[in-house]
């Protein structure tokens, strides 16, 4: 689970940059619990154009700007979902 901070649409699909939720387990148990988002731990989600599924990334980034730079490198160089 991530708290979406920024969305970037490319010709490949939609990237979402989100902060990692620190209390994810509690948010699943009780819908009244508000998520606590990390200040310096971000991950990517990617939805390929024309597909419904979402690919959750495994890489962690220290800032939204660092994640955004990685997205533009992926977009320029080409990528597979394994690069996420």
What does this structure look like?
- The protein is an alpha+beta fold and 84 residues long.
- Helix content is 24%, strand content 37%.
- It is built from two helices and four strands; from the N terminus they run ββαββα.
- It has a four-stranded antiparallel beta sheet with strand order 1-2-3-4, covered by helices on one side.
- The protein is globular and about 40 Å long.
- The two termini are 16 Å apart.
- The mean pLDDT is 90.
Work out the helix count: 2
Describe the strand arrangement of the main beta sheet, using strand numbers.
Answer: 1-2-3-4
Helix content range: 10-25%
Strand content: 35-45%
By oligomeric state, this entry counts as: single chain
- In sequence order, what are the helices and strands, one letter per element? EEHEEH
Distance between the termini: 16 Å
Low-confidence stretches: none
For the biggest sheet, the summary is: 4 strands, antiparallel
Name the structural class: alpha+beta
Return the average pLDDT rounded to an integer: 90
Assign an overall shape: globular
How many strands?
A: 4
Rg is 13 Å
């Amino acid at each position: 689970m991530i708290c979406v901070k920024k969305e970037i649409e490319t010709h490949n699909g939609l990237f979402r940059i989100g902060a990692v939720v620190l209390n994810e387990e509690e948010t699943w148990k009780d819908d009244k619990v508000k998520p606590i988002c990390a200040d310096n731990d971000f991950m990517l989600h990617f939805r390929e154009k024309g597909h419904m599924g979402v690919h959750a990334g495994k890489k962690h980034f220290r800032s939204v700007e660092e994640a955004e730079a990685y997205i533009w490198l992926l977009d320029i160089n080409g990528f597979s979902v394994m690069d996420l």
